[in-house]
Amino acid sequence: MSDDDKKQFEPRIVAFFCNWCTYTAADLAGTARMTYSPNVRVIRIMCSGRLDPQFILKAFREGADGVLIGGCHPGDCHYQEGNYKALRRFTLLKRFLNMMGIEKERIRLEWIAASEGDKVQKVINEMTEQVRKLGPLKLEPVSQLRPEENSVPLAEAVAVIEGGAS
Amino acid sequence: MSTANTPSPNGKPKIGVYVCHCGINIAGRVDVQATVEFAKTLPNVTVATEYKFMCSDPGQEMIQKDLKDGLVDRVVVASCSPLMHEATFRRAMMAADANPFLFQMANIREHVSWVTLDKDAATEKAKALIAAAVKRIVLHRPLEKTRVPVNSDALVVGGGIAGIHAALTLADAGRKVYLVEREPTIGGHMAKFDKTFPTLDCSACILTPKMSAVRAHPNITLWTYSEVAEVEGFVGNFQVKVKRKPRYIKEDLCVGCYECVEACVFKKGIVKDEFNVGLSKRRPIYIPFPQATPLVAVIDPETCVQIKRNKCKKPCVDACERDAIDFDQKEEIKEIDVGAIILATGFKTFDAGRISRYGYGKYPNIFTSLEVERMVNAAGPTTGEVLLKNGEKPKAVGIVHCVGSRDCKTNAYCSRVCCMYSLKLAHLIKERTGAEVYNFYIDMRTPGKGYEEFYEKLLKENVHFIRGRVAEISDWATIPEEEGKLVIRAEDTLVGAVRRIPVDMVVLSVGMEPHEDVDEVRRVFNVSCSHEGWFLERHPKLAPVSTFTDGVFLAGACQGPKDIPDCVAQAGAAAAEALVLIDRGYVELEPNTAYVQEEFCSGCKICLGLCPYGAISFNDEKNISSVNGALCKGCGTCVAACPSGALQQNLFTDEQILQEIEGVISYV
Amino acid sequence: MSYIYYPGCSLKSTGRAYEESLLTVFDALDVPLKELEDWNCCGATAYMSISELKAFALSARNFALAERQNGEEDYAEMVVPCAACYLGLNKAHRYLAEHPELRETIDRALEAGGLKYNDRVHVRHPLDVLINDLAPDKIKALVKRPLEGLKVACYYGCQLVRPYADFDDQHDPQTMDKIVKMLGGEVVDWPLKTRCCGGSLTGIVQDVGLRLSYILLAEARKRGCDLIVTACPLCQFNLECYQSRISGIYGHKINIPVIYFTQLMGHAFGLSDEKLGLKRVFVSPSRAFSKAEGGQHVHG
To answer: Is the N end or the C end of chain C the one with fewer CB atoms within 10 Å?
Structure first.
């Protein structure tokens, strides 16, 4: 193995953790000294429902290789239903990102309860390896869109917009 | 850019970055010096320094001095979790006359130094989190906490010893307390015991005065046979719906004379008596036990012939001279407003039938500890005699410790009280029967005051102690002495041999478990549970009676297995913390609420349906939405949905978060 | 559902009666069993103590073959009657799922043999299949010779229900008991139903092995059993074939028939002794059977 091979690609992942469950679980993992990959940087929000899709886009644009979202289990949201909203937005956004050429594995949503420090460790380790295998995110200019299953060929899309808008 | 995102009102912001060593907790992994040097390179940072313990007085004074000297007007502390010390540093800023919301923490301990093995990686991650905080804090605005008045009444859920003590403490402090208990009487598990360890005090003698005090106290409203159905609102202002189940007896008329019970068409018990843990049977109309509080009869709708089939002569009605029986009684919903809630819902015992090799339910003379508690109780089904099912006294009794506890297949934890109560039962059984008593234990756990001495006493009483987890209990006899007996097989680890001990009776010392419906109950109060199902305290060491839901406190075994002294202590603590809330008279709400920037709102109404607290209303005249700051809890769901960005959340505006993202990923 | 039948070495030799009765009974119940092609020995308990890795590889090969034979269907249901094979295969199944380093090595070994294991196998015991997969009354419907009055002790042996099986209670299993009740027999409950019979010790340290078997036989006799049914070829062998020697050593005449539960089922279904391997017994069950038939056992 050459020296270049030995120096692994270290993915940089931005995480949005909800204050009441996931952030607390991450604190618990810390208190219990559970070690995990250092590749995930956490941003604290009060509820996963606060997550605006533009945050995820910003993260990728600024150079993140992956985005992790952590919220409370369904039924347990501190604010009743915020996590359901997060789930809906996330599901739509993932398809949209996929069409733009960002692989599905680069964005992940997990429900992590306040007592699940071990899950924080597990998810971070898993996601780091997954994103490492995918390699660094290379955002391509629009003209080089790769056709994906759900995507519409560019020419057609342009035709629809220019011809059909009313 | 809207006015919400205006930077420091004094012109160019002056950010102070303070990196904490936390002893070696952070400094042992993160190169603190390097992070300080890095912080100096960030825009708007005027001071970057380090200290061993930022949360200590000298640490806080460092910050305060820089604020007072005008060197900084915004503060970033890179240390532990904000859940740990955000409040501490905000208070420090207030003491220096600075706005506490011009403050941000970077969590480089719980999220970095404690979880990262590689020092270089840890340092880089710490730098990223510091950059995130520095970029974000530029956009913080000074904010004020709003004060909301607190209702001075309290609700205690659960009428066992913990609930009783909490209610009495609050009532004695002059507060109005609602004590809600789901069984027809208060008293909980303690009412079932005969004697308590280690003093061998009579349980009823120490409990019943407290139960009477509850009944008599002018400040306590006692609702038994009732459950909390719904809780709305927030700390200091809870609206609670209590469901009062119908007893079919008018509580204010009944004097507990027992005439109705004697008169019932069923002359013998027909359904398992819950209070006697199934060792006897009761009639459909019953009073749980003679010291029940309130001393009022109750009719079980599942077994009463009149209620089920409308076909009874109703001799109970004839017998009642107070005319207290009312078959038309219906369930009642009571609505109350309280400021604080204490959960004291207690525990249930482990179901010994889950461990088939102990033969519970298969062989007749195998009892759980709770069943034996009722037996040794003079007011119990055997009037205090320890008897086999055939009515004879046992000559040899085995007591099996750790049933269901310390077992990865059932409950991994230790239930804390079983060793002590097993010793107590060993003593009582020996006293009542003179039998040979064998205690099979793994370790002898006697941590309380007088507990180890109690164990010593038992050793001197010729109780046999075999150190070995019982493998199997069966009726398989290999020698004549074992015929007709229950044979307990265990490895005696101190002797190094497998032993077979034939006994007449086995007592299974079952562990403590959360109630079966704890998942539903916790949702009513919006608290979390641990893996095992105990209610989750805010911090295991420093905040054992509060929860993550402000205004809801915990007392007693519902928070984890514990003995009576600890239940009482915790109940007093919970009452004290509730009083802190109530006596202060107001709560300061975190100002992380949402608000509408009117000039950007187009009146699309997307936000209206999103708020679970009904905090958003629509102004038809102006055609814009507006947020009620007192109702808003600060989740931000509406903010994320707003298409124009008119809705923003204080402390979590779009711009602040976007800057935080930039900081966290674009520098390192 | 179709099942792949893994006989294991014993069922083709000393445990032949088990195979005969199993196939006959499953056929009568209309449950298709197709033997696994080119199956290999599972290594039983012996190989595990010599080389765990090789023992796992042997089991993995059987899994891969089962998947291949199963084809497109979802999961290969592998029916494994011998308790030792059942234990070994179940252990391998568990370990291969839970230990990635082990799995990697085994995957390479399989690859060398042109095989692949995709985690699409369920290891099932016939008792599990009979109780959990069949419609409740299917067994009762076939009973022509109900076993009224016959006292039966069900002996599971120590390897069947622990530590990996989850289809029955690990200390007080009931599946065989349920079947005997469906056949009309009277189950004698006893606490030794999963106590070791001695296993291979009867060959190696004979006095220990025989003593363990004696304990079981004596207790069964003491509780008034007419018959013992088992689910393991080695248990059946130990309990049945040394009775005269045991009687000699302990001065306690023991003469109690020990047959496979499948043989008892087949007998209750009215099927011929020949087809059920009932001619291969050391201790004849005919007196026990006569008791159930009011004194007239009809040899079929």
So the answer is: N
